[in-house]
Amino acid sequence: MDRTAHFSEAEKLDALEQQLKRYVAAGLTTIGDRGTNPEQIALYQKLKATGRLPIRAVLTWLANNSLPAAELESLGIARGPQFERILEQLFAMQLRGKGKTAIDRTNLLRHIAGIKPEPPKPEKPEKKSAKAASNSKHAAEKPTKAGKSARTEKNAQSKGAETAKAGRGAKGRVRAAAGR
User: Fold this and answer.
1) What's the pLDDT at 77?
2) Residue 99, number of CB atoms within 10 A of its CB
3) Cα angle, residue 174 at apex, residues 173 and 176 outer, rounded to 5°
4) Helical axes 102-113 vs 81-95, angle rounded to 10°
5) Distance (Å, rounded) from C-alpha 104 to C-alpha 98?
6) Residue 11, phi then psi, degrees to nearest 5
7) Residue-level pLDDT at 106
């Protein structure tokens, strides 16, 4: 629980600076602040950047001690020496700044345990809705530039081809006359 959430950043900076000045007044030259989080480290960095840090500070990151034992078990690793080694390796990697997100931690656990990553799921083809299907059915009947529907034009072309093959029609007569 963050008890400082209702304070502004300026208030937090002033409070930290006043506390550090009390340490200096007591004769300290260096302090160690153990278990700091990124927000607290940022406050120290801002004091230093603005020349308001009156003392040397050694900061220690607060380690995320919530190791994902349940997640490791869900991956099929039974508790035992190997289980403990995997958690220790994950912890060491987290100290080096890796595995900051849940997905990164899962991928690290899989890598350390020797479990191959899950293959990407194939994309499912989108199903056309009933409306989209009926629209595509009627698309062939939409009028063309000449004002005829595509279906009517297609029918006329196929009928012309049939009459030419049968030797009827104007084109058929010309061909027949040329052949005589």
Assistant:
1) 86
2) 20
3) 60
4) 130
5) 8
6) -65, -40
7) 86
And the tokens for 112? 């350390």
What pLDDT is attached to residue 148? Answer: 52
For residue 15, what pLDDT is reported? 95
pLDDT tens digits, residue range 91-121? 888 888 888 788 888 888 889 988 887 777 7
| Low-confidence stretches of the chain (pLDDT beneath 70) | 1-2, 63-67, 126-180
- Nearest Cα to 68, choosing from 49, 93, 46? 93
Other residues' Cβ atoms within 10 Å of the Cβ of residue 109: 23
Task: Compute how many other C-beta atoms are within 10 angstroms of the C-beta atom of residue 157.
Answer: 10
- The residue ranges of every structural domain in the chain are 9-61, 69-113, 148-180
- Asked if residues 24 and 55 have their Cβ atoms less than 8 Å apart, the reply is yes
Residues, the chain: 180
The secondary structure element, H or E, covering residue 52 is none
